[in-house]
Amino acid sequence: MTARTTSGAARTHAWFTPWVLVAPALVFLVAFNLWPAANVVFLAFTNVRVLSGGELVGLANFERMLTDDQLVTALVNSIVYMLVCVPFLLLVPLGLAVLVEKKLPGISFFRTAFYTPVVASAVVVALIWGWLLDDRGVVNAMALRLGFVTEAIPFLTDRWLVLLSAISLTVWKGLGYYMVIYLSALGGVPRELHEAAAVDGASALRRFWSVTVPGVRNTMLLVSVMIIVSALRVFAELYILTDGTGGVGGADVSVVMLIQMYARGFSGNLGYASALSLLLFAVTLAPLLLIARMNRGRA
Amino acid sequence: MAGRARSAGAVTARSGARGFSTPSPREVVLRYALLVLALFVTIGPFLWQLSTSLKGAAEDVYTTTPSFLPAEPTLDNYARAFEAVPILGFAGNSVVVAAIVVTGNVVGATLAGYALARLRFRGARLVLGALLLTLLLPGEATIVAQYLTIRQLGLADTLVGVALPGAIGMLNVLLMRTAFAALPKELDEAAIVDGANAWQRLWHVGVPNVLGMMAVVAIFAFIGAWDDFLWPLIVLTTPEKFTLTVGLEYLSGTFTNNPRVVAAGTMIAFVPIVVFFAALQRYFFRGVDEGAIKG
Q1: B13 in a domain, yes or no?
Q2: Which ipTM value was assigned to this complex?
Q3: Superfamily assignment of A60-298 in CATH?
Q4: Are residues B218 and B171 in the same domain?
Q5: Residue A156 near residue A162 (C-beta atoms within 8 A)
Q6: A102: Cβ–Cβ under 8 A, 6 or more apart, which residues?
Q7: How many domains does chain B have?
Q8: Tens place of pLDDT per residue across chain B (295 aa)
Q9: Could you tell me the pTM of the whole model?
Q10: Co-location of B69 and B85 in the same domain
């Protein structure tokens, strides 16, 4: 109750009050954010295992990366993931947002329904898709019955088809998430532009390209970063669709799957897993910096 | 509820302007057609899974002429899932983890967010900078070191170990800070004149005005904890301690040849989160309208 006794407007609380309020968050900031980040850098130069301590091994982990064929495979998969995800997740959710923006009767039901795949666990949706795309699942059943194919499409056993299946799962699960972000941004697009374009006789599709898309340009930049970052972090989708094996011969692993594989079990090689984590961080940072630069260029 | 009143006013103003261009009947029909198509794509797979989970052992789920409606709907598959693995135990474990994470985030982020937004103190900018820095770190990149920390704390293979690292998310602290910062200065000043100290202002002035953002934080914390897979997969080794996601993977490994039981298991994990979200979606989409969700 020192508020009124002290002079000056700034002094409205005891000096320690803010620190008491911030303390829990600060403990978590240090213990579970800053410390692990520093520790992972240190671990990357060691051969620490889960149960036995290790020692410094210099650059050995990084040298090992250079000759790790599985890492090359994982990076190729990530790049393919990224290249396919970006265009779909950049445009389809924007279309959905335009669709649910107008407050028609029942629209909040549609909004909620489109968001459902986001809310569901990646494990749940991957198991659902695994059954849909099974050799004897409903997609193959339909394709066979309609005569598109004469034998089942190996969605879950072919090297590239597994990857594409996981990608379509990621796209499907991400639609609602980015839809909501676009929905938030659409409020900022001036209505008059749409009306003017409509008066000029522009079709709906044309208005989408020449009014909506430029209007949410900044959001699209942000969304593309988010898509790229999440494509690099893919884990559960591929893990579940391939039963934790990374596909036939491990050809469908992702970088995060490799980290999990090396960190797993009591003999887990935490040193190498940490070095892979640093690589993941570096690869993730690149698109962020690129976008930050593009933003600065315009300001 | 100053913030809410203001946004309600804005909505009325906007929809007033919209009345200018009421959609033509043709546009309305086209919009609904597209909405239903999108609904089929987004919800269809869940309904198919639900249908599979209700099909009896006598019904051929592998036929090339599958039927959407189960011939004789049955709950047998749910019973089998319950028998085969301790699925209620898994659900209980997920509830424990989610409860810790939601409580930790709502309380911790609110306290810290308030201090950072409404109280002046030395070092505030440093704390804020460190918070922003953590946003650059993808969780997966520090998961190995995180695991070592949890081991050293003696929390490996425990539910507390699963919940702890996410119990106060730095993004949530920033979200709460933004919410508190948006409140008008006069609110605080009036309370100060009345002799309210910082805690009283937080409780009586701050919190009632940021309930919307607190709901958004709670929703995201719950969903994140309930759905997480990689972290519990690394921390937990004893099957009795598995959370639902890890338990589901275990179940699907046991029943590779019976999609009906796996479908029942996925529904058990899926339904609670959908009910939870459907119940709170009002707050969520209100948060969206207020610009709470900017990615």
Answers
A1: no
A2: 0.86
A3: MetI-like (1.10.3720.10)
A4: yes
A5: yes
A6: B23, B31
A7: 2
A8: 333 333 433 433 444 444 445 678 888 899 999 999 999 999 999 999 999 999 988 888 887 778 888 888 889 999 988 888 898 899 999 999 999 999 999 999 999 999 999 988 888 999 999 999 888 777 888 999 999 999 999 999 999 999 999 999 999 999 999 889 988 888 888 888 888 888 889 898 898 888 888 988 998 899 999 999 999 999 999 999 999 999 999 888 888 778 899 999 999 999 989 998 888 888 877 766 655 544 3
A9: 0.86
A10: no
